[in-house]
Each structure stands twice: as C-alpha cells, then as structure tokens.
Specification:
alpha+beta, Tumour Suppressor Smad4, 2 domains, 7 helices, 25% helix, elongated
C-alpha cells in the first residue's frame, strides 16, 4: 500500500517523502520493492524515501513523535494509514491547517476512507505541490471531551460513548447493553460501529446526535445494528437529540468509562463531570474524489507526466 502511494506521489512530481519507522520489517520490504522498481526503469523515478529518526516504542506516543518531527521539517501533507484510533491521535496533535490524507487499513473504521492508495497518492501529491488548493479540502467535525472542567481532555472523530465497564484494558466495545449514551459527530447509515446507530435513526442529518440507549426489551425503538464486522445486534433507543456545531452536552454521571471512536480510553466515577462538545473546526482532510475531479477539469494530468 505504501509502495502504491509512492507511485501515485511520483506521478504528480513529488520528490521527497518522510516516513515514520515501521515494525515487522515493513520498511525493509518496502526498500527492496523500491530498489527493484528503480532498477526495472520505472516511467518516473519514485520519491526519495527518508525515515524519521526516532526510537520506536510501539505505543501511541510514536505517532505523536513522528508527527511532530514531520511538522518541524515543514511537510505539506500527512498521509495516515490506520484506523479511527490512529487518525484520532493525529487529529488531536497535528497543526489544524496541515492537510491529512486518511486511508483506512482495517475493517471497522468510520473516519478514514477505503481508497486505492495509488489514486490517493496522486491526490495528496497535487495538494502538496499546490496544484490543487482549498477546493479539494474539507474541515471535519470533532468531538471535544472535557473532564471536570479540564478543557479538551481528549477528542473523538466519530463517536463518544458511556460504558458501564470501568476498566479500559479490553478497549473495544462489543456489548450494547453496557452502553448508555452515545454522541456522534455525524450519522452514517452505511458505517459499522456506533455511528451506524445514528445513521439508522437520522440518515440525512448533517449535525451531531446525542443518543440515550436502554435494553431492547424496554426501549421505545429497537434497531438492528452492525456493531462490528460480523456482529449484528439489537440496540434499544430511548431518546435522540440533535447537537449543533459548537453545542455541548453533559453526560449522565456514573461509574464506568468513556469510549472514544469505539475504544475505552477514560475511566470515570460517579462524581466526575463529563461534557462533550461538537467542534466544527476539526482536522483538515483531503477529499480524494474532489481532488481528482479538479485535476481532470484543469487538465493537470493531460499529456506527459509533470
């Protein structure tokens, strides 16, 4: 996938790429592939690939450290290969005006797009070289989580959920009976996960939603929800309220945990005050489809490669 991304970047004239060190021999395999492509005489030389100098600790802090190093080097675009969690970390710590190209590498993601990496590379390269501007960029919404008045304690790109399980060790959410409230930044009826609840309730809403859940046997509304890949369950809905951009909602107090984008992250007790705010000024992302549409309209890919 990284190799195909590099081919797309090269096609639009990108010459230099910084990459975060990767485990499991990914970089060594990639380097061999790049050398083989170079010796085979590719139509256009691939970008020079440089690893960010850092110590890999196999933790979320690796992403934060690599991102900071890239920003210090003045990168024009950051391509994120990962799921909702990785993109959430990047969105929380990146410069708000640095364009992100979010590509999904998993099966249960709502924020990053499932896109072919070659085309994504071309779109990202056109933005990086400023051949295409703000018309191919979009400002995403983000959910800001405040704990006991501590502003922006954390954030979520897609959903925030209240879970009765207090410990965050087993992070993923699988049992809807343990979830009492969900706040989503958008409604996605075609998504897998908590955001699909919102999508099935309000498939056309553009703002956020605050949803209160109850067991299906006592619910006013029961939905059949694809909660995870291969997992479809009944979910009981008690109340639904829209959340306007900039508006905040207080979550009901209780012992448990707060899940961000489907993973338990914050342990809370009955005395903790949790507030979630829908912020319209989230990360800046590349609209791959629109970028390629603009390239076609302007003839940027007509004739020989740039």
């Amino acid at each position: 996938m990284v190799y195909r991304l590099m081919v797309g970047l090269a096609a639009v004239g990108v010459e230099h790429v910084l990459m975060m060190p990767a485990a499991s021999g990914l970089y060594d395999s990639l380097e061999r592939t790049l050398r083989a492509a170079s010796s085979a005489g590719e139509r256009r030389p691939l970008p020079r690939l440089e690893l960010v100098e850092m110590t890999v600790r196999h933790a979320a802090s690796d992403t934060v450290e690599a991102l900071a190093a890239m920003e210090r080097r003045g990168v024009a675009v950051v391509v994120v290969l990962g799921g909702d969690g990785t993109n959430r970390i990047v969105a929380r710590h990146s410069d708000a005006d640095l364009p992100l190209c979010a590509l999904s590498t998993g099966t249960n993601n709502a924020f990053p797009e499932m896109r072919e990496a070659t085309v994504a590379g071309m779109a990202a390269g056109l933005v990086a070289r400023r051949r295409i501007g703000e018309e191919a960029l979009r400002r995403e919404k983000i959910l800001r989580v405040d704990v006991n008045g501590e502003m922006n304690k954390d954030c979520a790109l897609v959903d925030v959920a209240v879970n009765s399980e207090r410990f965050v060790g087993a992070r993923a959410l699988w049992r809807p009976r343990e979830i009492s409230e969900v706040v989503v930044s958008s409604a996605r009826p075609d998504a897998v996960g908590l955001s699909s609840i919102a999508g099935l309730l309000e498939p056309t809403v553009q703002d956020g939603l605050h949803i209160r859940l109850v067991p299906p046997e006592v619910a006013r509304t029961v939905l059949t929800v694809p909660l995870a890949p291969g997992l479809v369950v009944p979910v009981g809905v008690e109340e639904v309220n829209r959340l306007e951009p900039g508006e905040a909602v207080a979550l009901a107090p209780g012992a448990g945990s707060i899940a961000l984008d489907g993973e338990r992250e914050i342990e809370v007790g009955p005395s903790d005050e949790i507030e979630v705010r829908l912020d319209p000024n989230g990360p800046l992302t590349i609209d791959i489809e629109e970028a390629m549409r603009q390239a076609a309209r302007r003839g940027l890919l007509n004739g020989t490669l740039p």
